[in-house]
Batch of 2 targets.
Target 1
Amino acid sequence: MDTKASDRVLARLSALHPKKIDLSLGRMHRILAKLGNPEKKLPPVIHIAGTNGKGSTIANLRAIAEAAGHRVHVYTSPHLVRFHERIRVANQLIGEEELTSLLERIEQAAGDDPITFFEVTTAAALLAFAETPADLCLLEVGLGGRLDATNVIEAPAAVGITPVSLDHQQFLGETLPEIAAEKAGIIKKGAPLVVGQQKKVGLDVIKDIASLNGVTPLLANDAWHYETMKNGTGILYEDWHGTLNLPTPPLAGVHQTGNAAMAVAIARAQKAVSIPDAAIKAGLGWVRWPARLQEVTSTRFNKILPDGSDLWLDGGHNPAAAETIRTFLQHVDPVERSVTIVLGMMGPKDAAGFLAPLVGLANQVIAVPIPGEDGGAPAATLAAAATDLGINGIIAKDVESAIKTISTSADKSRPPFVLIAGSLYLAGSVLRELELFPV
């Protein structure tokens, strides 16, 4: 797909605001008014906030709704390889010609008024969704919730809040209750609210804000429950409608069971479209979500590594994501395999907080810069953070060099287990380099 035209318009629009992130709804309301208020012309909307698991929950919801035969609009962020991944119109990624046309309309409507990149992308998605018939619309919050550009939806069909943890403190607040309050800003009167597993201090805030809106939250481990079957053959899910025996999600990691269950709870809480149990089971069987503990096979990176090696990719970038990675890596036999983390992170992220859960599991960390990202953390800083925690930390100029270093130093009796992690931007650059384009 040639994306040069849309890339040029996005570049021009990005120059209209000096800050990449500036949380406010005023600019969003103004541009949408100029565009004819597309946010008021959407099919039923399910709005999802949270720190971890938003995208995976939406991926599961999309699969479930499509399995039920529905046409589904989806808006997620960030993209991994191509901007078009953010906007899925009636089950298909938006086309280049349509995207360029939408962006040019937004550019004309904005004039010289300041507007952030995310506000532009959100306006484009809402415009596309308003002008194409569909049965359901899934919106992922970009950052926070209360002042996020997606929070222009007045009457969603359902709201979901996935687990909340510390992240983006420079924008959302330094404490978990402050961050939870921002996430809970998408709660709306009359909309069913499904809440994933939370720490108590965050949950208390979410429950208070729900009460102020006259909403009774459907809480994990209260209104809905799930457990992995002992023989590993599936999930036992139970809620106010009864019990379901569901397939094990194809997405790797035990945390994906929780994301799948959250999606099921939302699907059963909303009343906008019909979703039979058979569609829930079918959808969970084929769901895909790139760069979330994604196994990478049959690429030139795999050919560089010694026989018997494994290569995985994950975009997680905060301590909660690292805990998920820790659980995943605990299944790797430390006697049989050596574990190397190829790490790239954005500058504001907590490298030590991310690496701390991996102490005792990772044999070494090879730190790399993120290609094309001025705000990336210096590789030397990341390597030093690893070394300070007692993990062997070294640097490489890029991911391919790191893979070659692993291959050169590998002990043939312990084939390497390699995980590229720390940033969705890094994950996207790897997928682009290996031509593994999300579809």
Note: The chain is about 40% helix and 15% strand.
Target 2
Amino acid sequence: MTSDELTVRGFRPEDAEAVAAAHRAGREHLVMSAEALVWLNDRPSPDGHFRTFVAESDGRVVGAVRCGVVNGTTVTGVGHVNGSVLPEFRRRGAATALLAAAERHLVRHGVTELHTWLDDVPGSLAFAAARGYELGRAAQFGGRDLTLPLPPAPLLPAGVELRPAVEWADDPRPLFLVEADAIRDEPGEVPMDSLEYEEWLRGDWARPDLDLELTVVAVVDGEPAAFTMAQTDGDRYWSAFTACRRQFRGRGLAGLAKLESLRRAAAAGYRHAYTSNDTTNAPMLAVNDRLGYRRCAGERKGIKRLE
């Protein structure tokens, strides 16, 4: 591939299937539907400045990068960037060009520190190191075959109910309060200490791939205490976020919600379940192990200071 054959441009809705294919090429644990990609690029993002850039070769989309400003934190100047290129088009300049386009965009919006997730394989780590990224924390993906039996559901403690999130469709604020409390303890270099309801509605609750029947809420004496969010693509299920309010921890509520969500997903015909956790998050790793998830891939955080 020569530079004349490669074009980097903004995302168009008709690119969605090709971008999704590049995203999951060789990485079936990454669940992202074409519909969700169109939505991500069409939704209002007044503070996030979200953009997707695509690399095109001879009229074919061969890769893409998604980027924006990190919201929900009191730390300013932090951006995120994540991308991928089809395996047969790697090492030909597409990833470098995409990353440069993302960096130019984010610098214009005040980003001084850029965060990315890297496949924990030598080629990906070497690519990032050569472009000024330093390695941060590690995470691991877990996969589970939903056609295999799930653990038996235990008896629910007194006062505990498991209910689908669709019951809060008209007023999801009680679920936002669970996430806003729990996310403060999420492992990461950037504290998520300033999550706002309107941004949560735009960025999480409104996702077209969020399944409110598979998203399960653990309710204690009528109050939402924990939940697990489920996103889907085809026959694949993604555990997007599991949260439990601090005062309700230690009761196994997150595990109960996740098991019920997986049970519902299996009954609905989903065949593959995936999740991701920071490697220091021992409690959630233990929950996933009991549910039958097994490590299928790893990733590393990459961090770069922008001049």
Note: The chain has two domains: 6-111, 144-298.
